[in-house]
Amino acid sequence: MTNRLELLPAVDVRDGQAVRLVKGASGTETSFGEPLAAALAWQNAGAEWLHLVDLDAAFGTGSNRDLLREVTGRLDIKVELSGGIRDDESLAAALATGCTRVNLGTAALETPEWVAKVIAEHGDKIAVGLDVVGTTLRGRGWTRDGGQLYDVLARLDSEGCARYVVTDVNRDGTLTGPNLQLLRDVCAATDKPVVASGGVSSLDDLRAIATLVPEGVEGSIVGKALYEQKFTLEEALEAVSR
Ligand SMILES: O=C(O)c1ccccc1N[C@@H]1O[C@H](COP(=O)(O)O)[C@@H](O)[C@H]1O
């Protein structure tokens, strides 16, 4: 595990556009233009990772698969690919993009046997997104309850899941700060690295998340704060470099 907090700028794609949502709610989209342009901007600003999400696939309203494959193929940086990866076919397509890892959400709640199988087959190419309201997991575009956080975490740990992407749904896209207690609690419950997601609004938020690196937080996704220019990616990378 690295000592420096990794930053993963997010490019969430809906209907071919880079968007940000509020609390993951469909219909709250603000559009930020071409996904490839956004991704290349983060790469050019020094990003080592991109968190790339097919929101239509997550919501079940369509697919941006070809576009996400093109974006991933055009980047030199590591890509965490997410949204709608729920079976052998969608997993094979996601991995074939050349992404560094995929992030599974709904599947971990609805098809646990399949997730155990792909964890065994693909190791650290598989992360699981634990998207929570309180301690209740949400799936299907964060519209349905899907079990209890610590029960599912214990199950996935026992199956060898390599990493968790933990999102506080009620903070996501709100610029209200990360849920540090949730991150601490998840880190206390697992030895596996945790990527924080949801709520980052300032460089101080990133510095606060960085204090949790010794507890197991490996990285942080940054979305709306970058798009709304609360700080630049260069400033963010500098803030977590010390
Ligand atoms: O990132 C979002 O804003 C988001 C909002 C609503 C639903 C999903 C969202 N993001 C990503 O989608 C995966 C889950 O996709 P699936 O359930 O596997 O199809 C989730 O982990 C987030 O990374």
TrEMBL record:
Q: Tell me its EC number(s), please.
A: 5.3.1.16, 5.3.1.24
Active site positions? 12 (proton acceptor), 131 (proton donor)
Q: Which domain of life is it from?
A: Bacteria
Q: Which Gene3D superfamilies match?
A: Aldolase class I (3.20.20.70)
| Originating organism | Kitasatospora setae (strain ATCC 33774 / DSM 43861 / JCM 3304 / KCC A-0304 / NBRC 14216 / KM-6054)
- Pathways per UniProt: Amino-acid biosynthesis; L-histidine biosynthesis; L-histidine from 5-phospho-alpha-D-ribose 1-diphosphate: step 4/9; Amino-acid biosynthesis; L-tryptophan biosynthesis; L-tryptophan from chorismate: step 3/5
Under Gene Ontology molecular function, one entry of this record is: phosphoribosylanthranilate isomerase activity
Provide the taxonomic classification. Answer: Bacteria, Bacillati, Actinomycetota, Actinomycetes, Kitasatosporales
- GO CC terms for this protein? cytoplasm
- InterPro entries (alphabetical): Aldolase_TIM, His_biosynth, HisA/PriA, HisA/PriA_Actinobacteria, Isoase_HisA-like, RibuloseP-bd_barrel
For biological process, the GO terms are: L-histidine biosynthetic process; L-tryptophan biosynthetic process
The signal peptide, as residue positions, is none
* Function comment: Involved in both the histidine and tryptophan biosynthetic pathways.
- SUPFAM superfamilies, per the entry: Ribulose-phoshate binding barrel (SSF51366)
Localization of this protein: Cytoplasm
Task: Give the protein's recorded name.
Answer: Phosphoribosyl isomerase A
Catalyzed chemical reaction(s)? 1-(5-phospho-beta-D-ribosyl)-5-[(5-phospho-beta-D-ribosylamino)methylideneamino]imidazole-4-carboxamide = 5-[(5-phospho-1-deoxy-D-ribulos-1-ylimino)methylamino]-1-(5-phospho-beta-D-ribosyl)imidazole-4-carboxamide; N-(5-phospho-beta-D-ribosyl)anthranilate = 1-(2-carboxyphenylamino)-1-deoxy-D-ribulose 5-phosphate
Family per similarity comment: Belongs to the HisA/HisF family.
Provide the alphabetized UniProt keywords.
Answer: Amino-acid biosynthesis, Aromatic amino acid biosynthesis, Cytoplasm, Histidine biosynthesis, Isomerase, Tryptophan biosynthesis
Glycoprotein in keyword set: no
